[in-house]
Design a protein that fits this description.
Order of helices and strands: EHEHEHEHEEHEHEHH
Bound molecules: D-xylitol-5-phosphate, zinc ion
CATH superfamily: Aldolase class I
CATH architecture: Alpha-Beta Barrel
Number of domains: 1
Largest sheet: 8 strands, parallel
CATH class: Alpha Beta
Shape: globular
Number of strands: 8
Distance between the termini: 29 Å
Radius of gyration: 16 Å
Strand content: 15-25%
Length: 228
C-alpha cells in the first residue's frame, strides 16, 4: 500500500507537546515551528497501558491546520492498550504518523497495517526492556521504529544509558528506509551520542517546553543532534 505522507528528510527534533502549556498550545507549537520544527509529537496515554491519561484525537484536530499549513508533520505516539481500535480516529483527526506499542497488543502486525491503510506512516514503539530484535518480524509493515529511552508514561525522566547501544543495534537490523525515533530524556547532552548511533527523529518534551525559551532550547538540541 502506498503512503501519501513522508517524514521531513534528515535528522529532526520533534517537540513533544506533553510538556507544553495547554492554555496556549497553539502559540507554543507556532513558536517552535517558526524556528524550524517540522515534526510535532503527540503523546496519547490511556490510564491502562501507562498510568496517566493525557489527550485524544480532539487535541490532534486542534493543531492539525496550524502544523500542516506550516509544512509540518504530526507524529502520534499511542501509549494505549489495543491501539488498533483507535487508529482510524487519530488518522481522521490529522495524524501523519501513528506509533503503536509492541507491548500493547497481540496484533501489532495487524495494527501497523491498519495505520498504513488509514494513510499514515506506521511506527512500532518498543519499551526499554523489549529487545531490538523484536521489531524485525514486522519490518515490512513499518516505516518508523520508536525506541523508548525512558519508560513510557511521563515527561522529564532521566535518559536510560543502555539505550544508545540499543539504537545502534536497531540501526544495524533495520533497512535504511526505516526511521529511528528516540523518545525520553533527549536533550542537548544526550542527542549527540544518539545521533552517532543512528537515530533520525529526536523527541524532546521537557527539554523544549520546560525551558523558559522553547525556540532557543529547540535550536540547541537541533544543533547537538546535527539536525535541520
Ligand atoms: C513519555 C513520552 C515522551 C515524553 C518525553 O512517555 O513518550 O514523548 O514527552 O518527555 P521528555 O523529553 O521530557 O523525556
Ligand atoms: Zn512519546
Amino acid at each position: 500500500m502506498s503512503v501519501g505522507r513522508a517524514l521531513p528528510p534528515g535528522r529532526r527534533v520533534a517537540p513533544s507537546i506533553l510538556s507544553a502549556d495547554f492554555s496556549r498550545l497553539g502559540d507554543q507549537v507556532r513558536a517552535v515551528m517558526d524556528v524550524g520544527a517540522r515534526v510535532i509529537h503527540v503523546d496519547v496515554m490511556d490510564g491502562h497501558f501507562v498510568p496517566p491519561i493525557t489527550m485524544g484525537p480532539l487535541v490532534v484536530e486542534s493543531i492539525r491546520d496550524l502544523v500542516h499549513d506550516a509544512g509540518g508533520f504530526i507524529d502520534v505516539h499511542l501509549m494505549v492498550e489495543r491501539p488498533e481500535r483507535h487508529v482510524a480516529a487519530f488518522a481522521e483527526a490529522g495524524a501523519d504518523a501513528i506509533d503503536i506499542h509492541l507491548e500493547a497488543t497481540p496484533h501489532a502486525h495487524y495494527a501497523l497495517k491498519a495505520v498504513r491503510e488509514a494513510g499514515c506512516l506506521a511506527g512500532l514503539a518498543i519499551n526499554p526492556a523489549t529487545p531490538p530484535e523484536a521489531v524485525t518480524a514486522a519490518v515490512d509493515e513499518l516505516d518508523i521504529v520508536l525506541c523508548m529511552t525512558v519508560n513510557p508514561g511521563w515527561g522529564g525522566q532521566a535518559f536510560i544509558e543502555s539505550s544508545t547501544p540499543k539504537v545502534a543495534r536497531l540501526r544495524a537490523l533495520l533497512p535504511e528506509r526505516v526511521a529511528i525515533t528516540v523518545d525520553g530524556g533527549v536533550d542537548a547532552s544526550t542527542a549527540p551520542e544518539l545521533a552517532a548511533a543512528g537515530a533520525t527523529l529526536f523527541v524532546a518534551g521537557s527539554a523544549v517546553f520546560g525551558s523558559p525559551e522553547p525556540p532557543t532550547a529547540y535550536g540547541r538540541i537541533a544543533a547537538a543532534a546535527d539536525a535541520s
